[in-house]
DNA sequence: TTGTAGGCGTTATCAG
DNA sequence: CTGATAACGCCTACAA
């Protein structure tokens, strides 16, 4: 009916003055609290008549169940903990959004915490999350040992990314870094480059050494010798990419291309090349890894290996939901994809 | 003592098999549950003897209070809701980290939600947060009306950023966008530029129009006419910066500098200039706004106005804590600071 | 199918 | 200063 808005249905307006309880709904609907609970949770079959009454009462009262009480009494909080390494970081940002998007429609809320690449901090996050009684934990790129992770999975479903690991209540989603790096190097080789420098990632991380392996394998697969002089250490952040280029230029060993283990370092490398008056791609071709959102806007746009961060988040969340439902997740990350943009070009014929 | 690790102190190891309750602690310490609660919360003065006993019992049992029960019984959850527009976004990321860093040592946990610049979604976030019984809500760059925000503040402390708004339980933190834009334009003028193009932000956002105003005021303050032809609309994202440059170049009206209302658009503009064969800063000087983390690694490094995102987060969280404590926040954001990097240089003397 | 009773783990209010 | 005794709001046997 097109009645003018009555002042009583306060719920949609958003001023929760009086905490409406399930009990009040029960009274209004003329049923017992348990019945209301059953209907709201679909825990049991109820007569259509009562269901109607309850639904209506819920609506007119604007009742919203109290998650705290629900969690305390029912043992489930409908919240899942997400430990990320750096909440600021274009890469993680996309993953978190994926998680959010997947969880939200299912009535679950993510609880984000940052561990800052610190195992101790990560352990603390896990404890806090346990204490908060989350229904499961997703760890993005854990720094903790496999056994520590497995231990956590004893009491809660756990999903991790960036590692190969399976267990009772544990699922892992891993990206094929080796293949990605192989692909990137192959690309450079196919453009006629043979003196391809490599800026490594922080080799503390397994994915960094995988990328290193991929680089080397592609080289050797093409009959090009792996030259340690062309391999300079980086730490996965911009400055290290810049410094790597400085080192590369200083040591006089010629190179016509650079493959950086991630886009952040490629960005730093681009700046370094610019400062040395080396043009990309005319003088040096540059390829990154990750496909950060802004790499396509770099000048010139960066050729790179696409990492499906958003999808990673979605799949991780989806797998967690399956684990919670007692199902066995089967999600797999897509294979690495090479994006050829303007930063890589054919090697000059000397 | 250097005793070898005993197998009993299971707490630090992280395998919460048996949920230890406050009651168990009470029993072990030989006191009543209420006393344990008092000691743990510092709610009342207790004899030193009992305190010792309780502290010890807590430790040996590895007791961790259940936040859900605490929230239900005490009415406070020690969690504060944070609604952000885009959880992925270098700008928000830094702010979220600031919030995290400020809250954590005080025993509070942030609860992040993204509203995606959508007022409806934002309203839903507020409701969800209310339902979760957070102790307060921080809204970063709200899209909701002042009155809606004020309404929320009726039932909970609220802190907003990017808007001027005060109320009983409401505090706002605003950045001086006008001054920042004024400063940026002034910088270009002082370099001898007079044909300064401006790429606007999404003028739906108050900060965008403030920046526009600052640009215009600086121009007019220097006796340079405001030329609508040089003002092209942008939407605060990279593509729009790129398109703006295309439009600018196409319309043939000469310009020697571009001031973009944010770094993302400046990045897009840089790419556009590159594609048109225009060099930065030799042919066109470029200045952005925000100082995103990677702007310093752009090629060339981008001159811009620094926005203290991390600090914004810290101050917002600190103000929230004060509001909760019944104090009146007084935090102020620092004045805009110009960072001169390599993307801006003296205008060529024609 | 539906109602009653008890409990989830704390905090708060009251007596002592 | 300290210990009972209620709530807090909901779920889940258990009984009807």
Shape of chain A: elongated
| Poorly predicted regions of chain A | 1-16
User: Any idea what the radius of gyration of chain A is?
Assistant: 27 Å
Work out the number of β strands of chain A.
11
Fourth-tier CATH superfamily name of the largest domain in chain A = Response regulator
State the major sheet of chain A.
5 strands, parallel
Percent of residues in beta strands of chain A: 5-15%
Features:
homodimer, 350 residues, alpha/beta, 434 Repressor (Amino-terminal Domain), Rossmann fold, 3 domains, five-stranded parallel beta sheet, four-stranded parallel beta sheet, 42% helix, 12% strand, DNA-binding
Please give the structural blueprint:
The structure is a homodimer of 350-residue chains.
Chain A: H1 22-29, H2 33-41, H3 48-61, H4 67-74, E1 79-84, H5 90-103, E2 109-114, H6 119-131, E3 136-139, H7 146-155, E4 158-161, E5 170-173, H8 177-190, E6 196-199, H9 206-221, E7 231-232, H10 238-250, E8 257-260, H11 263-275, E9 285-287, E10 304-306, H12 309-324, E11 337-339
Parallel strand pairs in A: 1-2, 1-3, 3-4, 4-5, 6-7, 6-8, 8-9
Antiparallel strand pairs in A: 10-11
Chain A binds a DNA duplex (16 and 16 nucleotides) through helix 2 and helix 4.
């Amino acid at each position: 009916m097109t009645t003018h808005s009555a002042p009583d249905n306060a719920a949609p307006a958003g001023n929760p003055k009086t905490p409406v309880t399930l009990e009040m709904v029960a009274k209004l609907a003329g049923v017992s609290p348990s019945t209301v609970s059953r209907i709201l949770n679909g825990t049991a079959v109820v007569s259509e008549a009562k269901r109607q009454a309850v639904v209506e009462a819920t609506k007119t009262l604007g009742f919203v169940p109290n998650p705290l009480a629900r969690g305390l009494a029912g043992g489930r909080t409908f919240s899942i903990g997400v430990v990320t390494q750096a909440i600021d970081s274009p890469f993680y940002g996309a993953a978190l959004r994926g998680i959010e998007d997947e969880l939200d429609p299912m009535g679950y809320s993510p609880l984000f915490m940052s561990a800052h690449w610190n195992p101790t901090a990560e352990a603390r996050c896990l404890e806090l999350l346990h204490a908060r009684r989350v229904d499961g934990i997703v760890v993005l790129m854990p720094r903790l040992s496999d056994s520590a992770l497995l231990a956590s999975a004893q009491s809660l479903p756990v999903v991790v990314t960036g590692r190969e690991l399976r267990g009772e209540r544990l699922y892992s989603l891993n990206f094929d870094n080796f293949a990605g790096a192989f692909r990137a190097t192959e690309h450079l080789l196919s453009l006629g480059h043979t003196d391809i420098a490599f800026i490594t990632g922080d080799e503390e991380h397994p994915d960094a050494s995988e990328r290193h392996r991929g680089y080397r394998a592609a080289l050797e697969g093409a009959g090009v010798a792996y030259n340690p002089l062309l391999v300079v250490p980086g730490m996965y952040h911009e400055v290290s990419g810049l410094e790597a280029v400085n080192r590369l230029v200083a040591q006089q060993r010629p190179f016509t291309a650079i493959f950086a283990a991630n886009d952040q370092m490629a960005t730093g490398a681009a700046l370094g090349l610019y400062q040395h008056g080396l043009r990309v791609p005319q003088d040096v071709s540059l390829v990154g890894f990750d496909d950060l959102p802004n790499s396509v806007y770099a000048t010139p746009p960066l050729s790179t290996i696409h990492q499906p961060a958003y999808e990673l988040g979605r799949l991780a969340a989806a797998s967690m939901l399956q684990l919670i439902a007692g199902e066995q997740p089967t999600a797999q990350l897509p294979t690495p994809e090479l994006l050829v943009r303007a930063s890589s070009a054919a090697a000059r014929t000397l």
